[in-house]
User: Fold these one by one.
Assistant:
Number 1:
Amino acid sequence: EAGVAQSPRYKIIEKRQSVAFWCNPISGHATLYWYQQILGQGPKLLIQFQNNGVVDDSQLPKDRFSAERLKGVDSTLKIQPAKLEDSAVYLCASSFTQGGYNSPLHFGNGTRLTVT
Amino acid sequence: GENVEQHPSTLSVQEGDSAVIKCTYSDSASNYFPWYKQELGKRPQLIIDIRSNVGEKKDQRIAVTLNKTAKHFSLHITETQPEDSAVYFCAAPRSSGGYQKVTFGTGTKLQVIP
């Protein structure tokens, strides 16, 4: 099966600029996750979608971050305006979650964002 | 929410020795315990997982054990090789409102010395 696709692979922007990341999950995976991974740390959940609805965005800095998953397939994550502390790898993941049955996450290769 | 503690944060072993990483979780409703391996500059990938109805699972040199009473699970790597060097993350997903909420451990950086 095709894996989780993400783009771009790398992005360098200046602070206060805006940036957008794109993710296409594995076909048939209803759950899509966006994680932020700062160097040397574990992935931190930013937002989680079930189909096209948000089920968890409790750690999303909503004053600058936004995400959408129109039609319940691919998703975009946007940062506007960016801050230096947003420098991180942004990982998209998807899982086949049916009812309460937990299943593994499949990660994309991530987007490495550098804010200068 | 779920709290997942992972130890140690770093681990160095000689090639051929065994490595053990332990995670403790807080939510007794957690019933699925995956382990992910993240090589430098790459994405996390599932290496082994276990469900709560099983106490141990093995896949070649990798095994995971689960102690539900004590709420901890461990990753065991035997006959370590240099390619095992990576950061390992545990997770303790739990079901909430029909979807799974995944909390990762803080990670263990394993270095296998040739």
Number 2:
Amino acid sequence: AQSVTQPDIHITVSEGASLELRCNYSYGATPYLFWYVQSPGQGLQLLLKYFSGDTLVQGIKGFEAEFKRSQSSFNLRKPSVHWSDAAEYFCAVGLNSGNTPLVFGKGTRLSVIA
Amino acid sequence: DAGVIQSPRHEVTEMGQEVTLRCKPISGHDYLFWYRQTMMRGLELLIYFNNNVPIDDSGMPEDRFSAKMPNASFSTLKIQPSEPRDSAVYFCASTLDREETQYFGPGTRLLVL
């Protein structure tokens, strides 16, 4: 069965600092990988996704993620964090593209300090 | 497009009462998913539909939960009777078969006292 691990429950970074959120997945084949962001009281917004091809994918709001098959990882990065990035971030894996259920990690809560 | 619409946004009820959550998917989408988010278990799939037909309901916790999709533009998730452990945020998401992304609604925050 698929599973997703986000090792960090809570991360605090200073505004302007770089950010890396970790995600490891367990799945036999190459999965479909997603990062979603959830602001307080809001739904989930897709940041980026990986299906195939270039292992470094660019997303919205200046985020990027790199797929590393050898490490079963799909870490999310941002070179310079803004206060508005404070939110909960979820990594998810799917068997197929959008039309199969997603398995989510437990999430990483990001706090940004001045 | 208005996006996925869920109602109500917040629901407070007493144990034993019936609760009905509603979802309107994005027009034209043929897949609809219900997820539940709790502190203990995170985000989990409850059930999903394709062309109004339930495909997988293995995530539905027990018989107290039921979901329907009478037409392409409306789905309900019903809990009867509700229990305090059902307190959670319930999300609805929709997508097209050829799409690569599930679009989530704002969620319904349910509190069962």
